[in-house]
Design a protein that fits this description.
By secondary structure, this protein is mostly beta strands. Helix content is about 5%, strand content about 45%. Keywords: Glycosyltransferase, Transferase.
Amino acid sequence: MSEMPATSHWTAEDVERIDCSTAPCAPVIPAQRRVIEALDLWDYWPVQNVDGHPADIAGGTLFIALSAPILPDPDARHAVARMRLLHRVDSEWRDLGPVLPDGFSPGSREWSGSAILSPEGGTITLYYTVAGVRGEVETSFAQRLFYSCAALAVQGDTITLSPWSEPVEFLTPDDVHYSRDMAGGGAVGTIKAFRDPAFFHDPADNQDYILFAGSIARSRSAWNGAVGIARRGVDQEWQILPPLVEADGLNNELERPHVIMRDGRYYLFWSTQTKVFAADGPAGPTGLYGMVAGRLFGPWRPLNGSGLVFGNPPSAPFQAYSWLVLPDLCVQSFADLVGLAEPPRDVVQARAHFGGTPAPELRLIIDGHKAWLA
């Protein structure tokens, strides 16, 4: 009988331990030079080896980022998002164009995921979120998890991925652990989650897993975020499992969850925003949060006693988002509303401050049940 997670809980009592006057925060981000002048970029991730380390490809790292044309309202980018392929060598970025051909994806837009290079280095498997439905007239909140594979070819500094295999929907919400209703209130921060698939290979049992942002089924609370997990069976089919962590009654979105291993322990990280904490409870800063366990299925304990690893600084509480911690403890994110101390007055101010490009990388130090910025 395969093991099942014993769901751990991120609670109001944990978050109440955050003292906003002394909470750890990232350094202030200065205005950033765009990687691609004509596009907004956000939520980016490297092509990784099975062990989670970024793969060395053509002397650098392949990245996939969400992208959109520079629209008057930067929030409108979510409704037209497409994955973009980039190659970085040292600090130089090169745009390689859309990841998937036009009209290829089954949805109206593409959201976050992860990408894994095969051990022999010849194939990339892309796990990603299909948002909406192809050809829909009104933008819907439907979220589905798909994978597709492509052959990787490198000749000199020319990198090609082709042809992509037909996308396969490999996981669906069961309405037992994870809600099938994605609409929520329909406003930013209220929609529900079945997105952000992140691959993890557990050396303890030599099995492959997918973590994802989910919403608890049949919750009585509007704030019902969870870190979901699924396991690949011997038949290559994915089995949905109970959540690793749930934040029922506390928080609506535990976004882009992922696990790394360090010194024999498992570290689970996710991103969340102040505005998606329950209105009648404690709230932490927009930031990187995490838990630690001795095994993948827990029990999980909040890092630093509260779960908060670091937040955006009080003088720039919206400056970055969507943090990804790599096995070497490098932390990647994107520049969001840079240099803005209060929520934007209007879309003109939001556009003027939206970074839309990778943020400066940070680095963590981890010691047992504590983690902090180097």
